[in-house]
Amino acid sequence: MDSITSAAQAWLTDFFDESTKKEIQHLIENDTEELKERFYKDLEFGTGGMRGIMGVGTNRINRYTLGKNTQGLSNYLKKSYTDSDLKVVIAYDCRHNSDTLARTVAEVFSANGIRVHLFSELRTTPELSFAVRYLGCHAGIVLTASHNPPEYNGYKVYWADGGQIVPPQDGEIIAEIDSLSFEDINFKADESLIHLIDKEVDEAFFKASVENGSFDAKGKDDFKIVFTSLHGTSITAIPEVLKRAGYKNVTIIEEQAKPDGGFPTVKSPNPEEPEALAMAIKKAEEIGADMVVGTDPDSDRLGIAVRNLEGKMELLNGNQTMVLMTKFLLDQYKEKGFKGNEFIATTIVSTPMMEQMAKAYGVEFKTALTGFKWIGKMIKDFPNSKFIGGGEESFGYMVGDFVRDKDAVTSTLLACEIASNAKANGSSFYKDLIDAYVQFGFYKEKLISLTKKGMSGAEEIKQMLIDFKENPVESVQGSKLLWIEDYNTSVAKNVQTGEERTMHLPKSNVLIYETEDGTRIAARPSGTEPKVKFYISTNAKLDKAEDYKSVNSQLDTKIDGILSELNL
Questions:
Q1: Which domain of life is it from (predicted)?
Q2: Which domains, ranges and CATH numbers included, belong to the chain?
C-alpha cells in the first residue's frame, strides 16, 4: 500500500489542477480501496490501444494519462521523422469527455510543434484510418472505448499506413512514454497548428466506401433496412453511404440516432449482444424489413439480423457474417479472374471455415493474433499481395485495403448488397449462408466471456489461464485431444505423438486445444476489458440444405456438452 500511496501523493504537486488534487486527497483520507484501484498500475496498451475507466489516477483515462501518451508519441514521431513537417489527425466518438480529451491531445501535439488535423465533430474510426493516408499524416489518434460501458474511454494510435501501431513501434512508443514523468507533458498549445476538418474528408471517405462496398446489387428498390447507430458515430456516415449506393428504404431508429455517451436505451452499446439490437429488430418485424444493422459507438463493428428459415429476424454472429461476406467477395474476384496474389485473413480464435474457403478458391489464407491491427499489418507486410477481405469473430470486418482497420461503414453496405442481391434471386442472406455450409462444411462457434473486475479480477483471470494450460483436458465430447497451441511459447504440441511445431506469430497469452474431430477451444484474456474469453468451434458435414435444422441442433447440443465439461 505504501507504493500506491506514494504514487497518489505524486499527483498532489502544483503541476496537477486543483480538482484533481482535491479528489486524490479525498481518496487518500477516506477510500483506500478506490485509491488502490486507481493507482495499483499504469494503464497499458492492449489489442486496441489504451482503454480504461475515466477518472483521476494512473490506472484511469484522464488529461494527464492521455497527455503523457501524447507527449511520448510526439517525442517518438520527432525521432522517427527527423526531416518532416509532422502532421497528425485526431477523431473522437460520442463518449463522455471524448471531445475535450481530443482537444487536450491536439493541444499537446501542437505544443510540440506538430501540425494537427482535428475533426470538428465526432466521426467514425474507419474514417480516421482513411484520413491518415488521405491527408498524408504521420500518425492518427481516435478517442474511443469502442463498445465498453459508459464509464470507459480510450486512445487508439494509428501510423502513416492507416493501420494501428504494431511491434516494434508499439513497444518503442510505450518505452518513450514510460521514460517520462507527468511533469514532462507540454500542455502549452500552439493554436496556429490546430486545423479543424470535416466535409472534405467526409466526401472522400463516402466516395471510397461506396466504390469498395458496392457491387451493382439487384433489388434495391424492394429491400428494406432497419439501421441503428446505438447512440454512436455511424449516424454520421452509414445513412449517407447507403443513400449514395441506391438504398431508399432505410428506417433509422430515431430513439438511438442521437449520439449519447450514456447509451440510455441499451445495457451495452455492443452489437454482439442481442439486447442491443432489440429495438431495431422489433421495428423490423413491425414493418417487414429484410435486414437489421447495428453498429458500436465508434462504428468499427457491425451486427446484423436477417430473416431465418421461419421468416423471423435472427441475429447472426461475427463468424457467420464474415464467412458470407468473404465468400461474396471471393465470387466477385473469381468472376473477374484471380491473378494469383490474392489473400483473405482472419484471427486465430475465429472460425476455421475461412481457411476451408481459401483452399476451395485457391487463394492464400493468413491468420493473425486477435486484434484487427494484425490484419492491417499484413497489408503493409505483403505489398505485392492483394487483400480481398477478412475479419474476426468479434463482429469486425474490412473490405479491401482503403481503410486499414475494421470498418462497419463499408461492411454494412457490403452486407446489404449481398442480401439485396440474394432476395432478388429468390434466396436470402440466411439461405446463402446455409449453402456455404453445404459447400465448405458447417462450422458453428460460441463465445463465453467472464467478467472479472479490478485487481483481484486480474489475478483470477491469470490463474484461470494457468489452470487451462497446466491441466489440459484429455478429450472433448468423446473426441481425443490432439494439439495444444501455446502462443506464449509459440509452440504447438501434438499430445499423442509428441511432435512439436513452431508458430510464427508474436507471443501472446492464448492457449488453444484442438481435438481429433476438429473441435477447437481457445482461451485468452481480453486486451481491452476485464474479461477472460473462451472460444468454442465445432463442425459437421452438411450434405444438403434440407438437413440444416437437424445438423444445427446436433452442433448446439455438442456445444452445450463442451460448456458443461469445462464448467463454463
A1: Bacteria
A2: 1-40 (no CATH), 43-202 (3.40.120.10), 223-311 (3.40.120.10), 318-440 (3.40.120.10), 444-565 (3.30.310)
